[in-house]
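tool_call predict_complex ligand=1,5-anhydro-D-fructose
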Amino acid sequence: MAQHATIALKRTGAKMPAVGFGLWKVTNSTCADTVYNAIKSGYRLLDGAGDYGNEKEAGEGLRRAIADGLVKREDVWVTSKLWNTFHAREHVHTLAKKQLGLWGIDYFDLFLVHFPISLEYVDPSHRYPPEWWGDDKKVHLAKVPFQETWGAMEDLVDLGMAKNIGVSNCQGSLLLDILRYARYEPAVNQIELHPYLTQEPLVKLCKTLGIAITAYSSLGPQSYVELGADKGAQNLMEHNTIKSIASKHSKTTAQVLLRWAVQQGLAVIPKSNNHDRLVLNLNVDQFTLSEDEEKAISSLNINLRLNDPADIDPRMAIFA
Ligand SMILES: NC(=O)C1=CN([C@@H]2O[C@H](COP(=O)(O)OP(=O)(O)OC[C@H]3O[C@@H](n4cnc5c(N)ncnc54)[C@H](OP(=O)(O)O)[C@@H]3O)[C@@H](O)[C@H]2O)C=CC1
Ligand SMILES: O=C1CO[C@H](CO)[C@@H](O)[C@@H]1O
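tool_result ok
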């Protein structure tokens, strides 16, 4: 099996695979098989979260791959995330334990605070997977200081439940604030990043601080609703700039978009329910974009954010 690129994390030196498999919207009924086949095809990182609602099925696929001798537990990097309703100190440990139980494993390679937004606690025995909204379909903000949540995340490291901890959807100012009090600095910031949202200042800051970046939604807008048509956006996989670069390298447009991120030293976690696409997405190591090609892709930036919690409730504005 070909060796794929990895990114060394600062505190532990752990090598995180640069291309992983994203689990959001991976269909529950096929998730175990999809994960098994992803591992069989060479994926060594799975990116889950409490609210994706498929941790049990993903764990089944992983454990079947281990039982069949395809991999050992230590060969597969499992990332998961703490949902916004569980930020209070007393809930972090309980939820991490529950999520590990669903996966059927005893540690996460990386556990992330999913959003720097705390919502009112909802008992997981009442509703799991968790959501943005309460029973009344309204968002209920809570006031848990991030320092409290981070302290509880650090305890997970001490307890051996998470080998690395990090954040997601965090702006530079919050990262700098966390560094004031962290015993364990965030290893990773998982953020939306694609040619329409290149996030250059944040990428630069994370590089300076030694915080690795995982880019999500690397393929850009997928549906009409997400297109940002008012900003002139279109499906990036159909964009002429990407198409002409892809044809020069005899690659798919998706591979070019993923390569563009990986070549910047970022990790990516593409998701696909389709086996052929899943296989193609992993194979972005065998070609290099020229500097001009990289620049042409980066110049498509229009600061188009597809995943902004403020779209759900304006009080959740976390991006400048
Ligand atoms: N931390 C966070 O807040 C967030 C994290 N994430 C993580 O990032 C992962 C990836 O992000 P996501 O937003 O799902 O977006 P992606 O950019 O990975 O994929 C978007 C869509 O593109 C389609 N697709 C995938 N590969 C190809 C291909 N080669 N050619 C054509 N179409 C393709 C897929 O549909 P199909 O299945 O039909 O192939 C998929 O639904 C998530 O699964 C999740 O793990 C995502 C959003 C937020
Ligand atoms: O990661 C995810 C993708 O984005 C969604 C919308 O904000 C989140 O709910 C989900 O957790």
